[in-house]
Amino acid sequence: MIPNLNIVPFVSVDNMMKLVLRVGIERFIAGLAEYVEEDFRRWETFDKTPRLASHSAEGVIELMPTSDGRTYGFKYVNGHPKNTREGRQTVTAFGVLADVGTGYPVLLSEMTILTALRTAATSAVAARHLAPRDAACMAIIGNGAQSEFQAVAFRALLGIRQLRLYDIDPAATRKCIRNLAGFGFDITPCQSAEEAVAGAQIVTTVTADKQYATILTDNMVGAGIHINAVGGDCPGKTELHRDILMRSDIFVEYPPQTRIEGEIQQLAPDHPVTELWQVITGAAPGRANPGQITLFDSVGFATEDFSALRYVRDQLAGTGLYEGLDMLADPDEPRDLFGMILRAAAPAPAKAPAGA
């Protein structure tokens, strides 16, 4: 991609948007989903650790590292729900891929947009294994920054065409309807979460408030529903009533992280859950019968960001949609870093006079 190994390709926000549009939003999510599923299939090859979180009263800042032994990746990401009141994003992020053999970074990328894409892709991958086969209608409760990505992902991977939308802020629902106008959905705006859930086979909750909340109560959830719980993703933040969890078969990414951050933080530490990778590889069953309530307790895991960065790296060739960053010092003599600084201060050689 870039012949000089000391120059690191950087994908800016502007270039990420151009790359997504060049590929096509649905195709981009579908391609990303294949990378996510591929990496879940080789789950056991990855280094895994819960994300490293620094919590404050205002939000959280996290690092999410992993490696498959050949490539290392990490994401820096924050979650600050109050930011929307100040005209800022709740979530921002950037990520790095590096070569394990040399330690040299091989890609630096924005991940605010990419995280939204990979979160939606992962939701749809899980639903492909867990949702009812004949699902045609999805409720989305919480119509903020993630909602359109979820809708497009479920259309691309599961063929969802009917949406029922609800947000406590009607302006958010109007925004979502406006953004999805060209994607062929049949959209119903609803006046309550209960109204939104009625008639839906899939329910996605994707709210942002950092608090214990009850977005879905037990009486809203009937037999056969698949719940895609996205918004509960840090300690002290949930969306579902505990009774729903007790009636559901629960599927998670990485239990040591989800038990701290997900809906299951409400349950006993040994409450049974199934890891998504086991379903994808066939080591454990997903949806076993039509009346089963399945719950994907999604908090986001580092392998998904690794997959997203891999996908972006593989799309870049020939596009020119990156910048080369001079971020790795490269002295002529590897042991002479100090001398490299001194030589940088030396005056450039004088040019010979014209005609000399």
From TrEMBL:
GO terms for molecular function: ornithine cyclodeaminase activity. It comes from the Bacteria. Gene3D superfamilies: NAD(P)-binding Rossmann-like Domain, ornithine cyclodeaminase, domain 1. It holds the Pfam family OCD_Mu_crystall. Its EC number is 4.3.1.12. The keyword Chloroplast does not apply. Keywords: Lyase. This is Ornithine cyclodeaminase. It is an enzyme of class 4 (lyase). It comes from Acidiphilium multivorum (strain DSM 11245 / JCM 8867 / NBRC 100883 / AIU 301).
